Amino acid sequence: MVVQRQSGTISHRRFEELPQLLRPGDLLVVNDTRVIPARIMGTKPTGGKVEFLLIQRLDEEGKVWRCMAKRVARLRPGVPLAFRGGVEGEIVSVGEGGEVDVKFSVSLSDERLQEMGEVPLPPYIERPSGPEPEDVQRYQTIFAERSGAVAAPTAGLHFSPELLEELKENGIEITRITLHVGPGTFLPVRVSRLSEHKMHAEYYEISKESTERINAAKREGRRVIAVGTTVVRTLESAAGENGVKAGGRWTSLFIYPPYQFRVVDAMVTNFHLPKSTLLVLVCSFASRELILRAYETAKREGYRFYSYGDAMLIL
Hints:
Elements: E1 2-3, E2 10-11, H1 18-21, E3 27-31, E4 33-35, E5 39-43, E6 49-57, E7 64-69, E8 80-82, E9 88-94, E10 99-104, H2 110-116, E11 117-118, H3 133-138, E12 146-149, H4 161-169, E13 173-179, E14 202-206, H5 208-219, E15 224-227, H6 229-237, E16 239-240, E17 243-244, E18 247-251, E19 266-270, H7 277-285, H8 288-301, E20 311-314
Parallel strand pairs: 1-20, 3-13, 3-15, 4-12, 15-19
Antiparallel strand pairs: 1-2, 5-6, 5-11, 6-7, 7-10, 8-9, 9-10, 13-14, 14-18, 16-17, 19-20
Helix pairs in contact: 7-8
């Protein structure tokens, strides 16, 4: 679906037509985060099982992690745990909202996580026996390089190497940023006032080279097109008086109306669920009236929602 903000028009195209929908000189910004096998299962001394979702490394060694846990009310500091591959752990602290800090006996490197964890597929992708081999590959974008996300930046799943080549041949520039997607992105808004909703912090990095490309595009009046809401949050979080700043930082930016966008001129995004911060962001970028009309059109025309769903290009 193609949504024009100024005219309010809605049209229907195939994603492979994206090179014809953009202009030479446009800068396409993608997220190169890679989903880690962040879902791990621990066993208590009683034999009870506890499922953890790794969300943030808390030390340099990678032995202490903040996790989301189910049945957190039954967990206490000091409780020992056993994990796959002979890894041991201990509950360090139990916080609010299902957050638990766990200290592991070894550093949870990428290689170790491959042995003891699973890719945390969304719950609506039913896999009673765990992710299948093709899931592990399909739930990564072609840009995925830097490990750290617990969910894929799904707008990037629409791209193929062939499409990237065609975009470049059409004079469209492509650069990368990194934002490691955390579970907070998907927590629904449960407050009556948007200003009261608290976003979980996510870590992002923008290289000096990407920063220079983004700032050059803005100076020269070329469009910066974000592939996904994760890229939007990263660019807007890094925006300063003199352009986008390079480096790595944590962001808890929640974009809601009447937010004034400073960097992003257009975006590619999937169709999001009601009460999600992602839908609020998209409504901030266009308008609530236009986006809800687009969603009604999407339902009527049979567009698919969720991670493997269809895409919307907002110009």
